[in-house]
Design brief:
Blueprint: E1 2-6, E2 10-11, H1 18-36, E3 40-48, H2 52-60, H3 65-82, E4 89-92, H4 96-111, E5 115-125, E6 130-132, E7 138-140, E8 143-145, E9 153-162, H5 168-177, E10 182-183, H6 185-196, E11 202-203, E12 205-206, E13 214-215, E14 218-223, H7 225-230, H8 232-235, H9 245-250, E15 254-258, H10 262-275, E16 283-287, E17 290-292, E18 295-296, H11 307-314, H12 316-325, E19 333-335, H13 337-366, E20 370-372, H14 379-400, H15 404-425, H16 427-433, H17 435-456, H18 461-470, H19 480-483, E21 490-492
Parallel strand pairs: 1-3, 1-15, 2-3, 3-4, 10-16, 15-16, 17-19
Antiparallel strand pairs: 5-6, 5-9, 7-8, 9-11, 12-14, 13-14, 17-18, 20-21
Helix pairs in contact: 5-6, 6-10, 11-12, 12-13, 13-15, 13-17, 14-15, 14-17, 15-17, 16-17, 17-18
């Protein structure tokens, strides 16, 4: 089995913010989850460096455009390890491999009679790099604005068009046969509604600026940013060499995107692919947006959330955990300092961290830093071990359906049961009355801490490595195929230390 996951490539006209961090971490979580299942994985991210916005931004900074995008792209590359993410490739649209792949795609579309030259006249947003219909616009005092709030301007120019309208029925047919290919379900319905509303041919080139990939055999035109940007997903798999092992192994992939760019990924991109006889993406997941303390995030308000600042204040895994435990993946969410403190303290510090600390400390002090596997488990132990198996099955179901918050809820509900088990069994009392039973209890709890930790590895990897090291284990030793039957003869404990300190409000 193999798994290919992508972020959208990030636009380089600004510095990274919490939205970029959220999407990248989501992809990292799914990539680690599939790796934990024993699959071969490929995680791609990168930067989108062409278009009118970038050209304008470089002029404002009085910089050579290529130098400007080099610097801005590096900001996004540097953020990846800071977020604890492990990627397999970082693609830039200014790379030769991408220019070659995109021009090959263009020529293939042209060869298949999917492109024609005409004139475009309509509303265009430079900020969104998108064209809009009259019906999609809102009238404001200083003109019309797009659904995103971006200003639009009326443009008229010669343009190459892609025959998008010819793919309306094929797209509907594909989505009717693949009902889980767009998630959440509300986004699937949104895409189908858009397609059924009628697709118009798509303008895919511009002549009013030069910073882009040249249209083959026509230097007056550069490719429209979306045909250029979207091609990155197959460029990284060595397109146009579709017979290579990477392409065959990993395509079709999973795209994790913000809901604002769903149309481009779920309508335009599959149509381009179908038009050159390539299978559409396996899945497109459109997540929501974040607000800050209840307010829409905006540069003008000055409430943009800097991921560096949040990680330095609260901790990397604490941020990763909060973003995906607090809000159902796919919904909009609100980032607040009170909420992150409450969530981290309740789940990581009190529930999980306290359990690790008190059990491992007790084993070090009272059981010579190790516990032996019992000759047999009594019914109370068996019941708790069986409840883990149930939690594991729920976790797998939820992670496979992209419900990270539900998967985390499964784990922490189970950890609450383990804490209750410790309180009821009271190993500190058994030390005096029944030391054999004390060791049995300690073994059961230790093994369940280890088993639960493995499920949390995709979400909070650096913390879980620390937890496992306390139990003399490494992440290389355990995966999801081994975890259910993982019952070592001896569990050795190293001196514990607090891994999830409380956040003081």
């Amino acid at each position: 089995m193999s798994f290919f996951v992508t972020t959208p490539i990030y636009y380089v006209n600004d510095v990274p913010h919490i939205g970029h961090a959220y999407t990248t971490i989501a992809c990292d979580i799914f990539n680690r989850f599939h790796k934990l299942k024993g699959e071969e994985t490929f995680f791609l991210t990168g930067t989108d460096e062409h278009g009118q916005k970038v050209e304008k931004a470089s002029l404002v900074k009085n910089k050579d455009t290529q130098k400007f995008v080099d610097e801005m792209s590096q900001n996004f590359r540097d953020l990846i390890p800071f977020l604890g993410c492990e990627i397999d490739d970082f693609i830039r649209t200014t790379e030769d491999r991408h220019k070659n792949a995109t021009q090959f795609l263009w020529n293939k579309l042209k060869e298949n009679n999917q492109i024609y030259l005409s004139n475009y006249e309509g509303w265009y947003s430079i900020r969104d790099e998108a064209f809009y219909l009259d019906s999609e616009l809102t009238k404001k005092e200083n003109g019309f604005v797009a659904p995103s709030g971006a200003p639009v301007e009326w443009v008229k120019e010669e343009s190459y068009f892609f025959k998008l309208s010819a793919w309306q029925n094929k797209l509907l047919e594909f989505y009717e046969q693949n009902k889980n290919s767009i998630l959440p379900k509300s986004r699937y319905n949104e895409v189908l509604s858009f397609i059924k509303g009628g697709l118009k041919d798509l303008s895919i080139s511009r002549t009013t600026f030069k910073w882009g990939i040249k249209v083959p055999e026509d230097d007056n035109h550069v490719m429209y940013v979306w045909i250029d940007a979207l091609c990155n997903y197959i460029t990284a798999l060595s397109y146009p060499n579709i017979d290579n092992s990477y392409f065959k192994k990993f395509w079709p992939g999973v795209h994790i995107v913000g809901k604002d760019i769903l149309r481009f990924h779920a309508v335009y991109w599959p149509a381009f692919l179908l038009a050159v006889d390539i299978e559409p993406p396996k899945k497109i997941f459109a997540h929501g947006w974040w607000t800050n303390e209840g307010q829409k995030i905006s540069k003008s308000i000055g409430n943009v959330i800097d991921p560096y600042e949040i990680v330095n204040q609260y901790g990397l895994d604490q941020m990763r955990f909060f973003l995906f435990r607090e809000v159902p993946f796919g919904n909009d969410g609100d980032f607040s300092k009170d909420a992150i403190a409450q969530r981290v303290n309740a789940d990581l510090s009190n529930n999980f961290g306290n359990l690790i600390q008190r059990i491992s400390s007790f084993i070090v002090k009272n059981s010579d830093s190790k516990v032996n596997k019992p000759a047999e488990f009594i019914d109370d132990d068996k019941n708790l071990l069986n409840q883990y198996d149930e939690a594991l099955n729920n976790y797998l179901t939820n992670m496979n359906s992209y419900s990270i918050d539900k998967a985390l809820k499964n784990i922490f509900e189970f950890l609450s049961l383990v804490n209750t088990f410790v309180d009821n069994q009271a190993p500190w009392s058994l030390k005096k009355t029944d030391p054999v039973r004390m060791e049995e209890v300690l073994y059961v709890v230790a093994i369940l801490i280890i088993k639960s930790s493995i499920l949390l590895l995709p979400i909070i990897p650096s913390s879980i490595k620390k937890v496992l090291s306390i139990f003399s284990l490494s992440v290389e030793e355990i995966n999801l195929s081994k975890i259910q039957n993982f019952l070592p003869e001896i569990i050795s404990i190293k001196k514990p230390y607090p891994i999830f300190p409380r956040i003081e409000k």
